[in-house]
Design a protein that fits this description.
Blueprint lengths: L3 E2 L6 E7 L5 H10 E11 L4 H14 L4 E6 L7 H11 L7 E4 L5 H14 L4 E6 L4 E4 L8 E3 L6 H7 L17 H10 L3 H19 L10 H5 L4 E2 L5 H11 L5 E2 L1 H7 L8 H29 L1 E10 L12 E9 L2 E8 L4 H19 L4 E6 L4 H12 L5 E3 L7 H11 L2
Parallel strand pairs: 1-8, 2-3, 2-5, 3-4, 5-6, 13-14, 14-15
Antiparallel strand pairs: 6-7, 7-8, 9-10, 11-12, 12-13
Length: 419
Amino acid sequence: MNSSLIDAAYQVNALFLLLGENNLPNAVAALTLTCPGGEVYLIYTDRTQAKAENLRDFLQGTGQFGAVHGVDLAAYQSEPSEIRKRLAMAMLGLSGRVGMNYTGGTKAMAVHAYGLVAERYPDAVFSYLDSNTSTMVVDNPSGPSPRFKIPIKLSLKSLLQIYGLQWKADQPPRQEPLCTAAATDFMRLHQDYALGEEWRCWCNQVLRRVAKSDRFNRWLEEWELAQLDPLRMGQLSPDWVRVLQRHFAAGVSDWNLRAGVLLGEFAAEPSPLAGLCQWLDGVWLEHYTLAQVQQIAEGSGIHEAKMSLNIANPQNLDQSWAKFEFDVAFMQGYQLFALSCSATHQRGLCKSKLLEARTRSQQMGGIEARFGLVCLARGTKSLQQELATETRDRRVAVFGRADLPLLGQKIRAWVAENS
């Protein structure tokens, strides 16, 4: 397939977009195919009105368009006469070149809108976004249709806006991982299955038992954590003790968490002791994953990477808890890559996390999003194949225990396969 950057000859003054369940292709089409100061017409139904409002707000916020109009089909998404009548009214007074991108919408909307635009504007530019190749395809009835690469770089914040989402104002995502050297040592020790199980047992039997609330299964308040007696380390092998001494000021047989905060990188955190507990209990894997993504970003076309995306409830932005959270997410161009991280080897939990990653990634980035899991499982190939068949999406990736030492390289290969 030959493709190049979009030719200005295919940009239009008035672009019609058919809205369906996925806003991203229409946002990309508007940003790619509309001349500076051009106008966009969003053709929507009562089922996609909210999506039209989200997309209109995003496009208007870019300042690139003269106007963003709505063409309301109400409940007539499959009624040819109403589709043509309402679209014809929107065409009154148009000037300049006209185009239509028909990636979204119903089949009836696409057929009848296409027919009317072609009838009224013989030189109209028709296009669709091919999600399999991430290229914009421009219709050419007399030969092969030209395909163009998409030069747009969307931020994670912009991507969320396209879908009417935002992260919680009081819990912005993290851009820099914490304690990457310690996370690397944790990864190294977890290559030994017995050492990994030893750490999980210590977290369950010591850390969680004393540092979590029995009633709510949450970490204790900071003042409560500060008053804890030193944690016993007798069941940990010398390998673990040396790592905790090196990075978190542990003693020989016991460990004061307050000393760990001071030596580690948690002192500036809103809840430093709880943050350290979370890190030790498994969040270290998220920090390690983000660090690995950032190491390969420049050579992989990745322009933004963050972790701990707490997405607010769009119906109640003041809600204290997030609607959902994503562990690690990064952007390549307009495409979202989302990774769920779970410091477990249990197949059932891994499968559950991967299915959730699929759902959440599509909420954040549409069907163009790629999703995966970073975990401690040993048989990741069969898990990936099972989920790929189940979700009918072979863009899924599962990175397990054996992949962790070269995780950055593995992620780079995954990105390259899906670019």
